[in-house]
User: Fold this.
Amino acid sequence: MELRQVFWADLEGWDRDDQAAALRAFLKSCETLLRQPPGKPMDGAGFAGTVGEWQGDCRDAQALRPGDPIAARRFFEDRFRPFAVRSGGEAKGLFTGYYAPMVQGSRSRDETYTVPLHAVPPELVMVDLGLFRPGLKGERIAGKLDGNRLVPFASRGDIVGGALADRGLEIMWLKDPVDAFFLQIQGSGLVRLPDGGMVRLGYAGQNGHPYTAIGRLLVQRGEMTREETSMQSIRAWVNEHPGAGKALMDENASYVFFEEQHAEGAIGAQGVVLTGGRSMAVDRTYMPLGAPLWLDVESDDGARKLNRLVVAQDTGGAIRGIVRGDFYWGEGDRAESAAGAMKDRGRYYILLPQGPAARALRQKPGP
Assistant:
């Protein structure tokens, strides 16, 4: 991983962005950072320093007048320094989108609502491998105990086939197994109940199996081209091929568990409510949660270009790598349409406080 200092003028569109919108997202991260011990390291590859080196900037951000774009821009320019992020000399990577879907469901099973969503099973064990090997910092694995051995947990196919049935772990029942699958991929969403009520579900855990992108499998098998793949086209293929579609979904052995959340929006891995258009999921092995990032991406056809300040506030099973991000579009039909079609190439820049920025300038580029 390489960090190369740039100037604000190098950030295309910086002078046209509404940094006040990003500041609102950053302040949510600050609420979490200000509750942590100052000596705690920031997540990421170790270049972002300690939480204490961010807390002073957080306190100053809280003192700013809300909604003032000029003051917000001045704050970021005075307190941070921008660095281009590269991986092995390559600046560009893949940026996808996600959103909070709305699905039909019920708290109880009946002839209409037959597809369960599960709470975390009590036997699921999550292991932070970085506690055992420094080189595995940020890596986690899940399983269950078999005597004194940790063994793999049930796969998606096993769970869909009934491996967790009749244990009282079902927290919601949906109409459509495809809805359940895509809700798990997004990691959170809204369930509309038969009486019109709404329940928000959020990510609570995962079975430990690696995530497999079924769109990539469809491309490899000649069912569609890479250019044709989107969430909408994948969903259409699964619905048009019920038997093969179920088998395809089960090839993604990863299975997500949910919990009911009482919040104003979807909650990310940092524990804060995500901001549509200003939050992004990253690989926390490399990027610290809570860090402002300047996003510069463009769709292959040039129809969509994003130049804006976002905040790293979430993670995802498919988000792996140094230059890799998942842009949170928010809720609703427009968010679904934009997120489903996004698979753009681009780059990002991390904004570091003065202390970590000074050290980054003195360090040689990493691998």
About this structure: The CA atoms of residues 177 and 285 lie 32 Å apart. The chain has a mean pLDDT of 94.
